[in-house]
Design goal:
Blueprint lengths: L1 H26 L9 H28 L3 H12 L10 H16 L4 H72 L11 H73 L20 E5 L18 E6 L6 E6 L2 E6 L3 E4 L4
Antiparallel strand pairs: 1-2, 1-5, 2-3, 3-4
Length: 345
């Protein structure tokens, strides 16, 4: 118990000394030890990284989950480590109402039949949207949040310790200056000024060593924060790929709906079919939708399934095949099996 009391008194004394030192610095009556320029630069970069990561994360969460109530609910479920509710998207609710209305009007009614097909399309778009939101959370939001909640929290904690070490160091410097000014004078405590100076200088050496050691720890952590941007860049690439797939799938779904509606009304439908003339001759990559399953007959070809969205590149001199890319796999695919997706049209 005595040891705990002594430690409590010692900690209270150190805290009081830091408050006094900080107050004197604020009033300009005490000098402040400045961090070296490299450490200051790293700290500024880390603060900027933290600030912008927090802002991007908030905005991204708002884009993917516009309803603030749902965001709060999701946050609550994450904290208690429970599965999030599988809520429907607005598109899916619209689709349900359209299907119900179409059934009410009857399948023989042109408008009712069209409502059914459009409603089914809205439901499919809603499912694609939920899949994209899930992918974006895994590849981008979760890594950014983990960075803020682990790496940046550690940096903030160690920076706070460094500031306390600096205050202790400057307080020791002040005691040394005061002890030196007392040399040759009579001490009120009965202890000679030489002894007080020796004690103050020993405390200063210990404080300087503690400060230098903590500064090195902080410097290493801050350098790690700077290198974390490479990881964030990979996450950003993955997010863009997920977003490109999302819009391509939405476009392909809407083309299917246009085709079905044209069939109902008897009107013409002109899909954007893929030919090698549609693919630029400088190896530019484009997206294409698979019209039907294709099984590779050799190692040079790529097997794909109907409605899969892949990347295609022209094969110079070959009008019948293009090079298909699906994830980490690539191979030749017949042009006749593909439909070009022009998301900018």
């Amino acid at each position: 118990m005595d040891l705990n009391v002594k430690k409590l008194v010692k900690d209270a004394g150190a805290a009081l000394s830091r408050v006094v030192q900080l107050t004197e610095e604020t009033l300009g009556t005490s000098e402040k030890t400045e961090l070296d320029a490299h450490l200051e630069h790293l700290a500024d970069r880390a603060n900027a990284t933290k600030t912008w990561t927090e802002k991007i994360l908030r905005n991204m969460e708002a884009v993917l989950t516009p309803n603030p109530g749902n965001r709060i609910e999701d946050f609550f479920y994450e904290k208690i480590d429970k599965k999030k509710p599988n809520r429907l998207s607005n598109l899916e609710y619209v689709g349900m109402d359209m299907i119900e209305a179409g059934n009410n009007f009857g399948p023989g009614n042109a408008y009712g039949s069209a409502l059914n097909k459009v409603g089914q399309c809205q439901q499919k778009l809603g499912q694609i949207e939920r899949s994209f939101i899930k992918d974006a959370a895994i590849c981008y939001i979760q890594p950014l949040r983990k960075f803020l909640e682990s790496e940046m929290k550690t940096v903030t904690k160690e920076m706070s310790i460094l500031e306390n070490k600096r205050l202790d160091l400057d307080a020791c410097k002040n005691r040394v200056r005061k002890a030196r000014s007392m040399l040759g004078q009579q001490s009120e405590s009965g202890v000679s000024p030489e002894v007080l100076l020796d004690q103050a200088e020993r405390e200063l050496r210990v404080a300087q060593s503690d400060f230098d050691r903590q500064a090195e720890i902080v410097k290493l952590l801050l350098e790690g924060v700077s290198s974390s941007q490479a990881g964030h860049l990979r996450c950003l690439h993955e997010f863009v790929e997920a977003q490109a797939r999302y819009y391509a799938q939405c476009h392909a779904t809407m083309q299917d709906l246009q085709r079905e509606l044209a069939g109902l009304s008897g009107g013409p439908y002109h899909p954007t079919t893929l030919s090698t003339s549609n693919v630029s001759g400088n190896d530019d990559e484009q997206l294409a939708r698979v019209l039907c399953d294709f099984s590779a007959s050799n190692s040079e070809e790529l097997s794909v399934v109907q409605n899969e969205v892949i990347t295609v590149i022209e094969i110079p001199g070959d009008e019948d095949y293009v090079m298909g890319i699906s994830g980490s796999k690539r191979g030749k695919i017949p042009v006749a099996y593909l439909e070009l997706i022009n998301i900018y049209k």
